[in-house]
Amino acid sequence: MARPVKPAPEENSALSDKQPWPLWEVFVRSSRGLSHVHAGSLHAPDAEMAVRNARDLYTRRNEGVSLWVVPASAIVASDPDAKGEFFESPKGKDYRHATYYTKSEGVKHL
Amino acid sequence: MSGESATRITPGNALRPEDIAQQVTDGSKASEDIAEYALRLGDDALILAQRLGWWISRAPELEEDVALGNIALDQIGHARSFLTYAGSAWGKSEDDLAYWRGESEFRSSYLVEQPNGDFGRTIARQLVIAAYQHELYSRLVDSQDETLAAIAAKAVKEVDYHRDHAEQWTVRLGDGTEESHRRIAAGFMSVWPYVQQLFEDDDLFDRLGGIAVRPSELRESFDAYIAAVFAEATLEVPDVQPAMTDKTRVKHSEHLGYLLAEMQVLAREHPGASW
């Protein structure tokens, strides 16, 4: 996936006009009560066009009632190479799951 | 919600060309005059769609390929409904009308027949036709002819987006770089001679009072809309004379024949083929 390329300072304006459009991440909500779900990404020159492009690319089959677009550069992500260590802590901690506990006798509506 | 995708995919509910075809089968038949009117609306949509389809794989960015492709498909949808309804007057199907009529039997306007040119010229043509169609369909929803009103009600919502798309690009190109301004201004200069024809009345409209929308009535609001967009886009209405056209829409620009040759070749080479 191409990332937006910042023009080098020495580049003249005619060249930098041709830089690729920035990348946007698209989130689609399919109906009321559900959350927005990441659908993919796209290129657009600015935020208004990004919403329109998202409409054209990701809601062609009636997938959504709401769209969010976010500049890809604004998303801070965890490091995929460090996922072992980063996500190690919760492993083995069964007591953080409801199923770890036995239901007390006589408790209704649980 | 188990087993259901978070991004649900459904066709949704809207009037489809197949519904019009069903109504026709059930005996709903357009009069000769209404059919002529539906033919004009349908042919504008069909020829415009054929033109716009050319952009797929050729637009400045992949996203624009899809945007223009979607707009073309919307227009194909409108064309199918209008042509199906028009065909009911003569026992012809939408395909009969799209693929088996000659140039002089089409009723498209000069504007939609104009070549795509560069992206600026296509956007200029889009702004004009979408603004015109928007004014037209938003009034046609009140037609005494229920089928025309129903097609317009579906179409006006889609054309609203087409107009918005063209408007966004007109403002960005007009108020963009020197080069983009030059190109969009040249685009409007080349399509403007064909604007006048869209707003000309002929005898047909005297016979279709309450059913058709009189084109001349749309001009004022069209001009007001264009003026507002142009002000934002730092563009001026081109000072050019209208081209010699034909308000009855029997005559066409020299471009239509070539367009039809490409559009119709498959159907004529393999009559009865389905795909």
UniProtKB/TrEMBL annotation, chain A:
It comes from Arthrobacter sulfonylureivorans. Pfam families: PaaB. This is 1,2-phenylacetyl-CoA epoxidase subunit B. It comes from the Bacteria. The gene is paaB. InterPro entries: PaaB, PaaB_sf.
From TrEMBL, chain B:
Its EC number is 1.14.13.149. Residues 1-27 are annotated as: Disordered. GO terms for molecular function: phenylacetyl-CoA 1,2-epoxidase activity. Residues 1-10 have a biased composition (Polar residues). Keywords: Oxidoreductase. InterPro entries: Aromatic_CoA_ox/epox, Ferritin-like, Ferritin-like_SF, PaaA_PaaC, PaaC. The keyword Nucleotide-binding does not apply. Pfam families: PaaA_PaaC (PF05138). This is Phenylacetate-CoA oxygenase subunit PaaC. The gene is paaC.
